[in-house]
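ok so I'm stuck.
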Amino acid sequence: MLILEGAQAGLSWLTILRKRENYRKAFENFDAQRVARFTPARIEKLMGNPGIVRDRAKIQASVANAKAVLKIRDEFGSLDAFLWAFVGGKTVDDALRRYADAPARSSASEAMSKALIQRGCKFVGPTILYAFMQAVGMVNDHEVDCAFRKPRRPRS
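replied:
not stuck anymore, here's the structure
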């Protein structure tokens, strides 16, 4: 998900969703150990792949981020444990009346961004990470009257 959110920076989310399966293939099913071993030659090959966003900085960031994720796993046991710690292990429920009131970032996304950048990650600014947090269920910004809104259970 971090690869996709980073790729989306400056583009429409629909563009990335349409390319998601191409990303899955190009980035070894998002396997951090494999992506961390991508060589400059592999990055050049990806630059020629029309199925993904061919932005060298974003591709290089994906490799750097995979390397950082491996270190985070060693230090914290899992990326999941590391990231959920920024929201106390449970979904932040903003209980919005209007989605237009949803923030673009939060103190949690700012702290997460700082921590990831300190560990060598790229394309992980607080706005990108807030969108990531929404996408993976760390933040519930559905309007309170939304038919799809469901109470989220705390993580165990």
